[in-house]
């Protein structure tokens, strides 16, 4: 599979651009992602969100305006991108330009996005409605902030639950196979097998 990555915003958040049979898909939209897409002359056809934390969605509205592409996310992510005051209600001095999702995504063993077949897994604990997108054919997982190289997502943010997160990683991600490459929301790619054997949070 052809994919490219961009790291943007003050939290150094990753997003991933994958080439599907029917066009380009972007996973997540950190600050700067829209300009990056334009500079690469990408004709974006679809934006999918792993979760709704502000560092992953800051450019969603800009991308929607620029490319007029559909936005897909979990139902619990919708208020995080459509309510300008959502993050302020939790005490964070952060806001985003609101935008409405075009369709909702839930856990399913098979769903096609622009002809790209993916297994969608819901792995909450870092954020309600957190999704991972797995291409079996390519042994590739777009993991959001669930599993990192040598670490895991935080469980102390609003709606977080570290025990739920660790359980989801062990039950849902480890079973995908040790050779699966994880594209995380922060930091470098890693392998499921590497994290199963060496991740200090998961021993």
Strand and helix map with partners:
Blueprint: E1 3-8, E2 13-20, E3 23-27, H1 33-39, E4 44-48, H2 54-57, H3 60-67, E5 71-73, H4 78-82, E6 103-104, E7 108-113, E8 116-122, E9 131-135, E10 140-144, E11 147-148, E12 151-152, H5 162-173, E13 181-184, E14 190-191, H6 192-198
Parallel strand pairs: 3-4, 4-5, 5-6, 10-13
Antiparallel strand pairs: 1-2, 2-3, 7-8, 8-9, 9-10, 11-12, 13-14
Structure description:
The protein has 203 residues and is an alpha/beta fold. The chain has one domain: Metallo-beta-lactamase, Chain A (4-Layer Sandwich). The chain has 6 helices and 14 strands. The strands form 3 sheets. It has a 6-stranded mixed sheet with strand order 1-2-3-4-5-6. A hairpin with a 2-residue loop joins strand 11 and strand 12.
């Amino acid at each position: 599979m052809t994919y490219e990555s961009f790291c943007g915003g003050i939290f150094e958040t990753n997003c991933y651009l994958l080439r599907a049979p029917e066009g380009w898909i972007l996973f997540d939209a950190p600050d700067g992602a829209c300009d990056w897409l334009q500079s690469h002359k990408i004709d974006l056809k679809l934006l999918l969100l792993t979760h709704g934390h502000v560092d992953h969605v800051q450019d969603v509205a800009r991308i929607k305006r620029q490319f007029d592409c559909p936005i897909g996310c979990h139902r619990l992510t919708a208020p995080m991108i459509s309510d300008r005051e959502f993050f302020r209600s939790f005490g964070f001095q952060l806001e985003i330009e609101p935008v409405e999702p075009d369709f909702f995504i839930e856990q399913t063993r098979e769903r096609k996005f622009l002809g790209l077949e993916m297994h969608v897994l819901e792995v909450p604990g870092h954020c309600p409605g957190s999704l991972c997108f797995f291409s079996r054919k390519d042994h590739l997982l777009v993991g959001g902030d669930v599993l990192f190289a040598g670490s895991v997502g935080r469980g102390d943010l609003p709606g977080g639950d570290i025990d739920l997160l660790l359980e989801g990683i062990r039950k849902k991600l480890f079973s995908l196979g040790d050779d699966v490459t994880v594209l995380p929301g922060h930091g470098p790619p890693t392998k499921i097998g590497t994290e199963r054997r060496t991740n200090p949070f998961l021993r």
